Amino acid sequence: MAYDFTRFENRAKEIDGWLLREFTGIRTGRATPALLDFVQVEAYGAKVPINQIGSVNVEDARTLRISVWDVSLVRAVEKGIIDADLGMSVVSDSSGIRVIFPELTGERRVQLLKIAKGKLEEARVSIRAARDEAMKEIDALLKSGDVSEDEKFSAKDDLQKRVESKNSDLQSTYEKKEKEINE
Asked: For the chain (length 183 residues), average pLDDT per consecutive 10?
């Protein structure tokens, strides 16, 4: 019986998705609506994401336009963005809210790269933990007699190749973000 890598592969996909979401939150000089996905606004007695009370559109390379559906919530949206402390300036006008991204300085780019590198390392640690879990399962299969010694070594070699492939994917995701930050 060969080892089933489905659990490892699913966990690796989760980790990859997590890293992409984390990198989306690392703001470069470009305005993207996804940067506001995590901003919570106090509306109707509860905290809700901005995209549930208005639409977020890109106005230009460094500006987002938020069209709030209920005009009475404009101040709450402004407060939510300011409280999120994303380093953006917020201006409201008659047609909604404008969120302006400042130009990135060299110092800020270095900080963002350090944050991105830290997120990459967290993802690698999670991949290693998933690998260790799979290794334990393979060892348990050997002890129970479901796999032979040769199958165990073969499964562990295959697992290591998968880990290296996933780490390579994570590294290329980081390199894309690094390029984006340095542009």
From this structure: 84 93 73 77 87 86 86 87 79 84 79 87 95 92 88 91 95 91 80
The two structure tokens encoding residue 50: 């901005």
Q: HSE (CB half, 13 Å, CA atoms) of 157?
A: 6
Whether 5 contacts 158, CB under 8 Å: yes
Global pTM reads: 0.66
We report the CATH number of the domain holding residue 136 as 1.10.132.20
Candidates 119, 122, 127; CA nearest to 159 is: 127
Count other Cβ atoms within 10 Å, centred on residue 70: 12
Please report the sign of the dihedral spanned by the C-alpha atoms of residue 17, residue 179, residue 100, residue 120: positive
Question: Which range marks the domain in which residue 128 is found?
Answer: 6-24+105-182
Measured at the CA of 93, the angle between CA 89 and CA 98, to 5 degrees, comes to 35
Tokens of 120: 């990459």
- Cβ–Cβ under 8 Å, residues 15 and 169: no
